[in-house]
Amino acid sequence: MNLHSAIPVLTVMNFHHVLLEQKLHDRALLASVDAALKRINEGTFGNCLNCGQEINPKRLEALPWVRFCITCQELIDGSG
After folding, report:
1. pLDDT value for 6
2. Rounded CA gap, 56 and 59, in Å?
3. Which long-range contacts (CB under 8 A, 24 or more apart) does 26-32 make?
4. Residue-wise over 4-22: b if at least 16 C-beta within 10 A, else e?
5. DSSP, res 12
6. In angstroms, what is the C-alpha Rg of the chain?
7. What residues are paired with 54 via a beta bridge?
8. Residue-range domains of the chain with CATH
9. How far apart are CA 49 and CA 68, in angstroms?
10. What DSSP designation does 44 have?
């Protein structure tokens, strides 16, 4: 196989990789949304799952499925 014949195969492989990554991202997002809906039903939506404090409403507006307040998220990410 020469370079010219390999390019279409590599392009298709890259496309499939991108689709797989998107599918994994979509599944994770759906799981996060489902978990947020469960917290709404349980009456715990808007409270940090780590410290129990109220999550900033602006943070929830931007990311309604968020599980942690910004302080705890930074600690979890290692940036706090």
Report:
1. 60
2. 5
3. 29/65, 32/65, 32/67
4. eeeeeeeeeeeeeeeeeee
5. H
6. 20
7. 47
8. 3-77 (1.20.120.910)
9. 6
10. -
